[in-house]
Amino acid sequence: MKDLPPEALEQIAGYFQVLAEPTRLRILNLLREGERNVGELAQACGFTAANVSRHLSLMTKHGLVERESRGTAVYYRFADESVYALCDLVCGNIARQMQASVKRQQAFFGAA
Questions:
Q1: Can you give the pTM of this predicted structure?
Q2: Would you tell me how many other CB atoms lie within 10 Å of the CB of residue 25?
Q3: Which CATH topology does 1-80 take?
């Protein structure tokens, strides 16, 4: 991100904002298994089709998912596999932080 203009930083922040919503992460995780339509995603998530559709629209706008119309249904699939790598990296980092926190707590309580 070195030497990026403010406009580019705003785009990057917008991209991360899309990933900062648990419902969208859940949808992306479902799409990891393969393409699905809005109804299938809504049923799997336990949300309304309108809610899922709104999230998919935003993710499409930011290039995370692609949509394809087939008859009366629209199917969504993942557009950028690198997001999975990014999410896996973040999950690994969080797991390491949690492990370190547990070790610190054990050291503290073990000293008592």
A1: 0.81
A2: 15
A3: Arc Repressor Mutant, subunit A (1.10.10)
